[in-house]
Structure formats: structure tokens, C-alpha cells
Amino acid sequence: MTTALETQLRSRAHDLLAEGVVELFLGYRQGSNPLRVAPFVARTPLETAKLVWNAVCVPNLAGTLAKHAGQRIGVALKACDAQSVRELLKLNQLERSRLYLIGIGCAGMADPAAITDAAPGRVTGLAEAGPDLVLTTADDVVRRERGTLLLTKCATCTGMPTDFCDEWLGEAPPAPPAVPAERFAAVQALATLAPPERLAFWSEHLSRCTLCYACQTVCPLCFCKECALTLERDHPRRQAREPMTIFAYHLMRAYHLADRCTGCDECSRVCPEDIPLNLICRKLEQDRSQV
Amino acid sequence: MSEPFEPKIVGLLCSWCAYAGADTAGVSRVQYPPNLRIVRVMCSGRVDPLFVARAFEHGADGVLVAGCHPGDCHYLSGNNYAEERFAKFAQLLDFFGLDQRRFKLAWVSGSEGARFAAIVAEMTEELRALGPLELKVQ
Fold first, then answer.
1. In B, what residues contact A, Cβ < 8 A?
2. ipTM for the predicted complex
3. Which of A43, A280, B83, B115 is most buried, taking the most CB atoms under 10 A from its CB?
4. Domain range annotation of chain B
């Protein structure tokens, strides 16, 4: 089922490509199952029919955008992606004049894991109906409230940067809300622990880290061509996975992102070991807001 | 038989002040614990927090970064950069639960041999009490 927003997006992308305003249009295409989407670059007006916009467009497009830097490119942005793009522009990784930014009125993205838990079986279809999501499984169709399935970052979204996009699709953006206190609740809970307990918390989580560097690869703001922190696959230190090697990596990654991280939570999304890396992002954000 | 724990401390000392201060301590025969391994750097502003993280990774129990007093930097502002950088870095160390006492940023001028010795002695004492930096694999 195609939503109005999706149709609008496809037609705008089609027109932009047909008129030659942009060479590429970046959005999402359907992924391997209904709860997955993948970044997708449309190069011809015809290809825009593949673009989708649904309730699980979670990946951050800013990283993909940076890979295509230099070309004239249009992109559909939700609030968190726009924050990352703004940061990339600030750091001279993109050229504003070569971008055509379409802001999307985003009602918050649903967590695919939460959807899977909420559905009575394997989800074979996902649609939107007002404030609800309609989940189709093999022998049932259920409605679930979108608000209860949101990603944690979306539940406490800080909104789209003002006067940033070239045009808007969907509902006009609500005024950026004050930063909700619950955004930092988990970090504050961690801060009240004694240092040894915090160390135990991180040891427990980081001991699962395999140094796969997915968090670094996916991060839109980790754009160095060569990274001082990554070790070759056959490097003894990477293979031994000493706890302090892992700590040093995550510590330095946090330090390098200290004034860049925009809190898109891509790192914790891609982590194969489900390490709560988003806590680090929240911590950085909290520290910045206190300066 | 277990020997009492002796911490290993890596000292990243600026060539113009802190390193000279260590030299003054030596020349004037001030006693301080031999737990410090000194690395001379040209300026405290040269010290990347990565050096500190690597020192911990390779077995240091504590790291001391020392440079010129604010305003006395040989390169005018290197120590100001160091101060900003390590303020942020220390916050992150704390966030990950590594004890704040394991990392120290100090200002020591070339003539302050006794002060340098006192800083090293104090840090060594603290780390002896704190024990080795051991991260357990769960």
C-alpha cells in the first residue's frame, strides 16, 4: 500500500531528476523483508518508482550522502538525518549548493524489533492507518499504536533544524520541542553509579565487542579516510580482544565524536552484539548541552 | 609469596617545563618513587588522548601528563589546548568507570623539582591504594 507521503516523494524525486535539478536522488527502497529498508540512489526518473517511505525508514542517509559528495544530489531527510547533514556541512564534507534537501514530516520511526514482538507471528506486511500501524502476519491482521513502537531516539526527538531544508513534504514540522528530560534518563542513571559499578556495567557490555567496527563504518560523522583506531583483521591486538583494547577503542571513538555526534543512534542499531552504544552518544550530547 | 603492588605510571612530560622539572628534581637529589616511566614530548599540546588510552592498553596503571603552567607555554598556547582536550577526555574516562585518579594533568615549571617529586609521590601513593588496572572479562 502506498501512502500519500510516499507518492508525493516519488513524484518530487521524479520531477527533480527529470528537470535535471539533481543527478541523483537518495532515499530508501524496500529491503529483504517488510521491516527493512535500504538506502537507495535513484539515477533516472523511472527508478524513483522504487523509492519507499514507511514507518521503518530507520537508516541514516547522511553517511550515504557523504559517499556521493561532489555530485548534485537530492535527498529525503527526516529530522535526525538532517542534524547529521548539517554537521557534515559544518565540517566541509558536503557542499550545500550541490544538495537539494527535502524535509519529511516524520512522525517517528518504529523499532523493527518492537514490531516483531508486538505481532502475533512473522510480519509479512506493514501499513499505516492514522496513528496506528497495521501489521499483517500469515493468519492475522493487527493494529498497534505507532507511539508505543517508536525507537527510543524518536520518542525523545529533538526536531529538525530550522530553515534548513529546501522544501517540505508531509505535515509541517512542529516547533522543536524542548529537550525531553527522559532523553538523558539512562545516562543519568549510569552517572549516579559509583565508578567501579560503571566499570562493571561497561565491562559486561564491552566484553561482547568483537571489534567488528560496524559502529564506526556506519557512523555518518566518522569520515576519516584512514582511522587511527581500527586494527587490521589479522592484527594480534584485534584477535586477542584484550578488555583494555576494546575499552580504548570505544573511549577514543567517543572522544573523536565528542563534538560531532548528532545522536542518530546508528551505532547501536548496527551493533551485532547489541552493546548500548547510544548511551555514549547521549552522554556526549548531555556534556555539550552543559558547556 | 606475593610482592606488594607497585603501579606503573607513564609520564608524558613537556620538554620545556615538566621534563626540566624532573631534571631539577634529579639534580637537586629530591627523592621520588621509581614508578614513573618518563616519555619526553615537545609540548603537552602534542599529547593526543590516544597516547593515554594506548598507555592504559599496554599495561600502565596510571598516566601523568605534565606541561608548563598556563601562560608559560614555550609555544604560547599548547598547554591551553591540552587542558581543554583532557578535561573532555577525563569526563569520558569517568563515564566508562575508569577511576579519575589513574589520569592526572599537572603543571610543573622547570624550577619546581620538589613539586614534581611531590606530584609523582602523591600519584604513586594513590595508585598503590587503588591497585592495578584490571578489567575482567565477564
1. 49-50, 53-54, 56-57, 88-89, 91-100, 133, 135-138
2. 0.93
3. A280
4. 11-129
